[in-house]
Amino acid sequence: MPWSNQSGGGGPWGQKRPGGPWGGGPQGGNGGGGGTPPDLEDLLRRSQDRLRQVMPGGSMGGRGVAAVALLAVALWGLTGFYTVRPDEVGLNLVFGRYVGTTQPGLNYNFPYPIGSVVKPRVTVVNTTEVGYRGSEAGSRRSVTRDVLEESLMLTGDENIVDIDFAVQWQINPARAADYVFNIQEPQASVKAVAEGAMREVVGRRNIQAILTTDRGAIEAEVRQLMQDVLNSYRSGVEIRLVQLQKVDPPQQVIDAFRDVQAARQDQDRARNEAETYASKVVPEARGEAARIVQEAEAYRERSVAEANGQSSRFKQVYEEYRKAPELTRERMYLETMERVLGGADKIIIDQKGSAGGGQGVVPYLPLTELQRRPQGATK
Description:
Blueprint: H1 40-54, H2 62-78, E1 81-84, E2 90-94, E3 97-102, E4 105-108, E5 115-118, E6 126-130, E7 132-133, E8 145-146, H3 148-151, E9 152-154, E10 160-171, H4 176-182, H5 186-202, H6 207-211, H7 215-232, E11 237-248, H8 254-323, H9 325-341, E12 348-349, H10 351-355, E13 361-362, H11 367-372
Antiparallel strand pairs: 1-4, 2-3, 2-5, 6-10, 7-8, 9-10, 10-11, 12-13
Helix pairs in contact: 1-2, 5-7, 8-9
């Protein structure tokens, strides 16, 4: 790893460290203090001057020099303490080589110039926009600018669709070292991977599904594909969310496409109405057919039963007729005449009376007719 790329290439922690492992790091070369390391020679000289002032005769022997040197070494060693905030992860470097990760709190590493600490912020959620550019931070006006070279994509059925989407990502705390040392331009890398993943997913679908039903599936598939690619790069980036902002046909054909959509909606509406009518009429027709079949079966059963009854009665009458033909004929005649003349008005003609010179015709009225005649009426 070249010394000029230890801090992630001018990422969110400052500029590149010039001059190798003993150059000015993003958090300062004193192990996280952020200030200039003390000048040891100046510190020793001032310590000697103070000792000369307090020692008799103003001179310092070998023991005094050793004490001063020991004190200087102790003070230098104390500069190795540093603090990691809750939203950071500490990456310890010794002679420019990564040796371990520390968690939030008070920690220690070799002081400068032997050791240094890089403290990336792992809880910050970054947003990468593809296909458009939103308003700058702090701007009062909300202006969105389309970037057609990023948003126009080819679908699986050889149509063109205009897609704007945003990707939210952050540093994976467990792989912060990969983010700092393996990726130089995080925003550009995430943006390139996002655009490539979206083009791949869109290229496998038809435009109609992209515009209507597959938005959620597209977001989930692009997120998973991006995460797999970034993991293969050992980038230390964790994709949190992929959100589609706009999915439309190209501006040049959007009016015609809307007409097609309106016609398709009319077609769906007519189909739904026809299916509703069919679901109503078909059961009614089946019910009517079942009713007719049942009535026909009932009529058949009744006719057969009546025919069987008449046939049985005829056989019984025939058996009685064979036993007494004259009597049976007389009875059948009387029963028939009773059935025919039972409800008719009758006139009795006395043949004997007409032959004796009388009037010959005697009208006869049934008893019911006599009862309906008004009282006191004379004839």
